[in-house]
Amino acid sequence: MYFHEIAGELKTYMSPTGRGGDFVITLVGETLRDPMTEEEERMAANDEFNPLASRMSINMLNQILEGKKFISKARAGLICSRYDGQDFAEEIDNLYDAEKDHLQQFLKRRRLTVEIDELGSAVQDILNQIFHGLSKGIHDVDIVLTIHDPKPSIKNLAGDRIYCEDGKLYIDGDIIELPIRLSDAQIYDFEADYISALCDAYAEVLSRDEVTVDEVSSLPKKYQTNFYDQRKAYLSAESIQRSISEVYEDGENQFDILKADAFDGIKTTYFDDYDNGYRRLLEVLKKISDIQLTKSKLSLIKNLIGNLERLGIVHILVNDKTIISWVDPYAE
Question: What's the predicted TM-score (pTM) here?
């Protein structure tokens, strides 16, 4: 399948009266993940994060939609490195029923049988394969849908043949990219509980009634540093948790085992007596770095759970309500 074929089909539903080149930019842009670094944030602000949004004429983009030109290998490679597609999949699933019927028939004519409620995932998969093909100079990509492929099991992994490096798992020569990387450029709604617990600990040690997240930047430097370090740790561990759950059928269960193992190792320290909640936090963070975590199969994957992720697991335990409070561990 060519890029212009699927893009042209989608344009008839999503931008029937818009310019072709503009739709190409929009289509690619809506499949990309959010910027993750300060440099990527600057690129986004300058309309450079989308590889097709800068230094390409509208005429060239029109020709790409018409199939007269192709996305270059270099630009396709950049798209692949930033591809996500999940939000775009939801857009496909929110099309009108008649439009989804037409899209289903379009795919069927190309020998791709997809249920109506799977169209979003199928298009996400198709575009991912097309962009990877283009990055190798392949214009007509032989699509083999993977949406029904069973996930591998962590239980079957041999510890001496798997390791993690730069957000990728290397297994017997195969490479699996961990799909979820959370950025500290924004504070997510799901961070609320552990951040609230941190702020309560800062408030107690500073003898304040309350500290809010907006006030962290005005706290003494050591508490600012602690806050930013804990967020970095949490986001790293949470990215691993979500990625492993996405990639492996038993990933969620194995991470649950890891969390339970971690809490067993720190709970005596957590429930000990301290002058304030901030001291309790520091002692637990010291303890998590010292204990052995061996019960989960995730411990077999070299470099997956490092010291940073260990610290982050502590804050995941706060979000899970396993750790109730740094100020009062017996709070109701």
Answer: 0.61
